[in-house]
Amino acid sequence: MLGSGARVVRTRFGVDDDTCSGDHSCIRLSGCPSLTLKESSDPLKVDPVAHVNHSCVGCGLCGEVAHAAILCPSFYRAEVVQNPSAWDRFIARLRAGVIGWLQLA
How many CA atoms lie within 13 A of 33 on its CB side? Predict the structure, then answer.
C-alpha cells in the first residue's frame, strides 16, 4: 500500500512521562503486553513510569481502559500518516504555526 502512494494512517498510543503518576493501574487492568515500565526521567519520581513499547499494534485497549475507568490522563493517541495528502500537509503546517505562536505568548 505504501508503494502505491496511497494515504496510510496508523494509530499508536503512548504514555506521557511527565503526567504518569507511576501507580501502574493501567498495566494491571488492561493486561496489554506492550505496556511496560521504564525509569522516570524526573529525579523527584521514585517509582518507574508506564511505557508503551514498539510492539504496540494500536488496538486501543490500554487507552480505552484508562479512559473508561478515569485512571490515567497520561495516555495519548497519535495518528501516524504516511503519504499525506495536500490537506494533511496544510493542517500540519497550520498546527505547527499555532503551536509556535502559542509558545511565544
Answer: 2
